[in-house]
Amino acid sequence: MSVLEVNLLGVPEVRSDGTLLKVPAGKTLALLAYLAVEGGMHPREEVVALLWPDVGEQEARACLRTALTVLRKALSIRSEKPEVLRTVSNAIGLEPAATEVDVHVLETAAALARQREATPGLRVQLERAVAAARGPLLTGVSLADAPDFATWLLVRREASHRRLAEVLAHLASLHEATGDLPTAITTLEQWVRHDPLEEQAHSRLIAAHAATGDSAAGLRAYEECRTVMGTELGIEPSLEIQALAEQLQSATRRLACHPMRHSSTAEFLTE
Known about the structure:
It is elongated and about 80 Å long. 61% of the residues lie in helices and 9% in strands. It has helices spanning 27-38, 44-51, 57-74, 102-114, 122-132, 147-177, 181-194, 199-212, 215-233, 239-257, 265-269, and strands at 4-7, 13-16, 19-21, 41-43, 85-88, 91-94, 99-101. The protein is built from eleven helices and seven strands. The strands form two sheets. It has a four-stranded mixed beta sheet with strand order 3-2-1-7. Helix 7 runs antiparallel to helix 8 and helix 8 runs antiparallel to helix 9. With 271 residues, the chain is of the alpha+beta class.
């Protein structure tokens, strides 16, 4: 069955069968995003209070009706497709069977990553979630006259940020477990870019470079860690990370003293 793709991680995009739909910015887009992320059915009073808090009840309800009309028109290209917007009594929502939301893809992947037992196809699901996360939730979206929506967005944005970090960390572990260190390094670099103040990401990246014998890359990763920690937090990297850097520096010096020896940095680190 054809579904409506609601992509909210990054600059919002809404697609139907690959066609980009034009959903007006502002309250209409915010309404779609809220219903898509939260799922389920929501009382009109709840939505009105969230998006139109500073106008009278009658005017606010009229604004909601207008937004729903505009949204239905934006989705009108989906004629002969399953209805997306649902209205039941005094509640509104999206038809879950007719929508696919990238936020939910990420949430599912993060939940699977937290499980102790491996799930069939886990790596594919994690990679799909990483590909779906094009940036922070609702990049470029803000509603100055809807403070409760701003709070909701902040909380949801931080949650998505944490979940992507979980997914990247676990995906890197899967690559490491199969011995695919180059791909693990690429994933760890994504994690560092996503969360530059997370010392575990830096530590694992430096260690992965060391495991491949690339001391120069490991030391560059350390210097990047040291720079961001110093600039953003005014601190030095953890003792663990400093110890890794010292091992790499020591291995580099030993290699310089034995130019004819073809051992890798990783071998020197285990001596």
